[in-house]
Design a protein that fits this description.
eight-stranded mixed β-sheet; alpha/beta; globular; binds iron/sulfur cluster; single chain
């Protein structure tokens, strides 16, 4: 499979301004030094708690945010070095499906106006052609031509998300970011929308980035995944390998928290203490050390390297990769006592 999207050492930092606009108080390190590849025709999951940088990373992929450092290559082309016209053309091939279908649809537009808007912006002006295309798209997502002149408020949450999907695929994109596409929906509709996304992916040969904090959905949907914590990738690779053998303590905690009804195997519940620290002043060393149940003293000072531990499986953890050969703090491999791990230190 060829790579459709490659991120090379991508960081996205946002300045935090003081009371006066020219006074800079610091920066939010939303994404730090992320490198990964997404292959054509696959579903790539990005998981992690709220605020871990999932959406910022995906926004950088589709050119909605310019990275502070690093490169975003779409089909081998650096998006952020393209001339404006070329960038716009490329951008049409990448679309997003948003979490809240209601707020992402203009309530004053009817279905025809909502779905045909991207075509109009592209320069299409033949009403009959647009109408035929809108009807085709509606049928593709499980709506019908009778819905053409209805408004978003006439639909249920699931139908609105179908509408959002119809609009997202109206320009025949090849790369689609699905940002928590089912988290605002009822459980019964949830599975229908996931199945629709799977059907469309196969029919239209789409590549998805599937952002979710729900590991059960990611397990069902994704071929590859990246687990993010505080702007960094902790573990990434083949989804089956990660679910079968999670190596990073954070991934282990997330997987242990999946809610399902399979009680056949005993499972250990891992409760992570404290909250995610602030991305304005992230912890030194491993960003997860304050909450890690297996943290060692050296984790506080030495950042772990991101290493391929088996084919198609990468982990950033000293427990798995060992400490690098350098001057290390005294007792570096001794477990940190809980008193030392006060979140916010
Ligand atoms: Fe935990 Fe240390 Fe591994 Fe970070 S590097 S996840 S603190 S064991």
């Amino acid at each position: 499979m060829t790579e459709i999207m490659t991120l090379q050492n991508v960081s996205v930092h946002f300045p935090v301004r003081g009371a006066l606009p020219f006074l800079r108080k610091g920066e939010i390190q939303a994404v730090s030094d992320v490198s990964l590849s997404i292959h054509r025709g696959e579903i790539f999951g990005i998981v992690g708690e709220s605020g871990c940088g999932k959406t910022t990373l995906a926004s950088a992929m589709v050119g909605m945010i310019k990275p502070t450092a690093g490169q975003v290559l779409f089909e081998g082309v650096d998006l952020n070095r393209l001339p404006r016209d070329e960038f716009k053309k490329m951008r049409r091939r990448m679309q997003m499906i948003f979490q809240d279908p209601f707020s992402s649809l203009n309530p004053r537009f009817n279905v025809y106006q909502i779905v045909s808007e991207p075509m109009l912006i592209r320069g299409e002006d033949d009403e009959e052609t647009m109408k035929a295309r809108v009807v085709e798209l509606l049928e593709l997502v499980g709506l019908s031509s009778q819905d053409l002149y209805r408004y978003p408020s006439d639909f249920s949450g699931g139908q609105r998300q179908r509408l959002g999907i119809a609009r997202a695929i109206s320009l025949n994109p090849s790369f689609l970011v699905c940002d928590e596409p089912v988290s605002a929906l009822d459980v019964s509709i949830h599975a229908q929308i996931l199945n629709l996304l799977l059907e469309l992916q196969e029919k239209l040969n789409l590549t998805y980035v599937f952002i979710s904090h729900n590991l059960a959905d990611v397990k069902k949907m994704c071929d590859h995944l990246a687990v993010m914590y505080l702007g960094k990738v902790m573990e990434a690779g083949n989804s089956d390998k990660i679910f079968a053998n999670p190596m990073h303590p954070y991934t282990q905690a997330l997987i242990a928290a999946i809610l399902d009804i399979d009680f056949s195997e005993e499972r250990e519940i891992i409760v992570l203490p404290g909250d995610t620290p602030s991305p304005i002043n992230p912890p030194s060393g491993c960003r997860f050390w304050q909450r890690c149940p297996k943290a060692m003293r050296g984790c506080r000072e030495v950042p772990p390297e991101y290493v391929e531990v088996e084919p198609d499986h990468f982990v950033a953890c000293h427990l798995v990769n060992g400490f690098p050969d350098q001057e290390l703090p005294e007792g570096y491999d001794q477990p940190m006592v809980p008193r030392e791990k006060v979140p916010g230190r």
